[in-house]
Amino acid sequence: MTKLNRREMGNSSEEDLAHRVLKDIKAPSDLGLLRCVQCGLCTSMCPASRHSEYDAREIIKRVLDNDESIIDDEIIWNCFYCYTCHSVCPVGNSVCEVNQILREMAIQKDVGKKQIESFMSFADSYLAEGLGIIPEEYHGQLKIDYGKHWENLQEQLQDIREDLGLESMYLLPEAKESVDKTLEAIGFKKRVQEIKDVRNRK
Ligand code: SF4
Ligand code: SF4
In a mutational test of the pocket of ligand 1, which residue from 5, 34, 36, 83 has the highest number of ligand atoms less than 8 Å from its CB? Predict the structure, then answer.
């Protein structure tokens, strides 16, 4: 028999995991987390659930059961934000958005920082160029995927842009400075440094 969650037992607390998710700044005001009826439609349509041990419905169940261990569980990182669950849920819940909040909680606890290490080179490109360029460490795989077209694109990108009447994709110095100030003001630089510090401590 399914274990009753706190909400069903009538002793939900403003401090339980579900309410903390709902109070998060990322949570839409109409997020139907507490209305989840465990129908499993999200799981039936979820590609991550099809190809891994991840189970979209189970994620919501654990949140409603106030199971804090889900924050540390690597399974939450299997979702890739396709939003299919979001579009099919009959009660307006979104496993996708709940997952985003759980991951943020994991990052705050440091346990999630190692999961986003692989994105640090994107962060570095924002810091260096003010925009997200494809980091060099991904070029090898792209070369395999695109074959000769990748070489052509790499070598002729500027020519192609000029043919199309486009200017350089890189930012002008004033724009770059403006992005740099914004990244500082919103705490992006501090956050990137914190993540790198965790990596360096290992
Ligand atoms: S589709 Fe919606 S109501 Fe059904 S289990 Fe998933 S989150 Fe809950
Ligand atoms: S957003 Fe995540 S949980 Fe939702 S269907 Fe896509 S992979 Fe599954």
Answer: 36
